[in-house]
Amino acid sequence: xxxxxxxxxxxxxxxxxxxxxxxxxxxxxxxxxxxxxxxxxxxxxxxxxxxxxxxxxxxxxxxxxxxxxxxxxxxxxxxxxxxxxxxxxxxxxxxxxxxxxxxxxxxxxxxxxxxxxxxxxxxxxxxxxxxxxxxxxxxxxxxxxxxxxxxxxxxxxxxxxxxxxxxxxxxxxxxxxxxxxxxxxxxxxxxxxxxxxxxxxxxxxxxxxxxxxxxxxxxxxxxxxxxxxxxxxxxxxxxxxxxxxxxxxxxxxxxxxxxxxxxxxxxxxxxxxxxxxxxxxxxxxxxxxxxxxxxxxxxxxxxxxxxxxxxxxxxxxxxxxxxxxxxxxxxxxxxxxxxxxxxxxxxxxxxxxxxxxxxxxxxxxxxxxxxxxxxxxxxxxxxxxxxxxxxxxxxxxxxxxxxxxxxxxxxxxxxxxxxxxxx
Length: 423
Ligand code: PLP
Description:
By secondary structure, the protein is α/β, with parallel strands linked by helices. The protein is built from twelve helices and 14 strands. The strands form three sheets. The chain has a seven-stranded mixed β-sheet, sandwiched between helices. Strands 11-12-14-13 form a four-stranded antiparallel β-sheet. It has a three-stranded antiparallel β-sheet with strand order 1-2-3, with no helix packed on it. The longest helix has 18 residues. Pyridoxal-5'-phosphate binds next to helix 4.
């Protein structure tokens, strides 16, 4: 194409034009094949061109594609909310449907604040978060994100939310060894709550496994149990941002299930529509809904396309597909196989510093010096170059570095569709 009016991520870059997708592959108009080892942005969880999903879309389109949430609900949205309530742990029974992960985390933030208002505690308005994190690109979600590379242009507009360190064992912020660390990173939250004042804090948000900002940074075993206890002790809601990890990516419906905790609120996105339609959700427990149900009975948020029937039908079909084909059950074994295969590469390529993650969310961190763990200088753009070289040979990887502040190294994510097979 000679001329484009499409605003692309990099205006001068020539992006391949995709013709079609099938299973774990995408094919461009020149016929070149790409193995989608990142599921796009960790999104195409059941692969491309799945017939059942296309049929569900068509069936819904023949009935109705749009109803406005303030006037109607739809069979698809009602069924989806019910199925999500049954598929998630604890009493995460309420779903608020939106269109993107950013909207889902912002909605979670707003519901947390409203919960306390309706309980007569209007001063609880702050949301705390961690450095080396990403919760979305809209101003509220970016405020919560500890991602200097994505914040820097908009700093004057952003609230200062991130305050604590991530559970980043490979580069422990406290210079401890994982076996004897005493979970200082979790305990830092307790100190932060006391310093800032729990009476002013509505919630704490974290990604169960850090995605875009750090490359599948996975916490040690008891981290989330301690975090949840600290939140409960101070009467502060815990929001799990499962936009990347939810819908089976790590081998359970929610990643939090690995550590046996039920968050007060959860944000979902990406794999929920699996790339077939824009849909995301904020899940809310009974306890958090209670004062709102008894009080104003109105959640002060929403978008024109919230709970869109077409998108809801897609997400419902994705969930049914996952169930019918036992997709989530197989994720752990596939992830272990992939991780073990990647570990063999570590002996061949010394610049592979760390291989981590859970299920089919696997991160690889690159280092200039494997002994000292010295990162490559940022200006070398190692992450971006690795991703580009792989794409040139037909392999799609996801770049995952927060950049600029040196708090996270160069990393990529490998996250193929959960339906990938060995051969
Ligand atoms: N939260 C997490 C954990 C994410 O990984 C992302 C996107 O990468 C978002 C929120 C924002 O989602 P979206 O890009 O759909 O707005």
